[in-house]
Fold this protein.
Amino acid sequence: MTPPMLLGRLTAPLWPSLIKFSVDHAVPAIQRALTDPNGFATRIGDIVVWNGEKGQTVLAGLQQVSESQSRIESALNTIETAQIGFESAIGGLQTLAMATLGVTSLTGAFMIWRLQSLNKRFDSLVTRIKDLEDNLDAQNKAHLKTAVQKLREYDDTNESETVSKARDEAQHAANVYGQLVYEETQRKNPRLEVLNYRGRCYLLSLLTELRSRLLLGSVSETKTRFTEERRLMEMLAKSTFSSAINDTPEAFLSHAMREQGVTLELMTDLYRHASRYRATDGPTIRQPSDMFELCRPRGIVGKSRRWWPFAASPKALANRLKFALACFEDIGRVEALRLIAEQIEKAQMTLGELQSMCADWAKKHTDGEFKGILVYAFPDAAST
């Protein structure tokens, strides 16, 4: 077994912290990435990857050991700010994501909190959208609830039968919600809020299934299931991105959007993920300058120009943007689990062993509850 290097607690912006960790701990993957002038870092769920000329390299994993129900509910129903920006200009990435950082946050108890918060969001939607109630009946929702309950039981008892039940129930739920996601993407005008809710249930089900498979030691099955669901996730990403951005990226960079916290770097990051999940057929956006050149011919509304009265308001545009960001964040959580599967397979260890190592480190380096994000890296990550 090749254990990961536990680099320490993340207390500053992500990318500068990784550079410091590289200097302090001589992490080969990070040092090699710094020699690639044309590459850029991307956070995918709780994994940091370097996109360079030679492809993708896993730099580090991010592990949050603790979580709170109130923060999960806030993330689902309102707006959260995750202080994990790559460039200091971003500061914080505003999302409506369902998950925070760290594989420990995928435990059964946290999954149940997310399901409860999803149900609250569902209740607010059915008053406006009748067919949700017809399609998402109690029987279908019961499979997802059972899956996360069994996952919680496994966390308490460590019995393989319970995690096997969680896997089966989660796969059933993923198939049900996946079909609903597919149907919504096929509408002429997909309803963004409906797509967001159905997609969130689908991705939570898939996350539960994949984590259950990893806990059972089925790395190959985990990667196979991800491959099987990749196309649907890309359809979800494309439909959400198209409905939210509507081929008008310049509108999100107007002067009026400044108060909403939208920056050129944030839009660049959004388009990077859109390209990654094949959500856009436009030009590849790698740097903020690429984003600016995409918007320049279309015109950007400045401070001296009035907002068109029949256009969406800045607040409405910001809400649409957050749905797109949330979609990519949630899909990234699923992809991150696949990347973790590849890493622990190479290291010849299990997901449970990785989580135990992180939890033990947190206990040794704090007197009370560990707060913050623990960064770890596999010594052989450079060969990814």
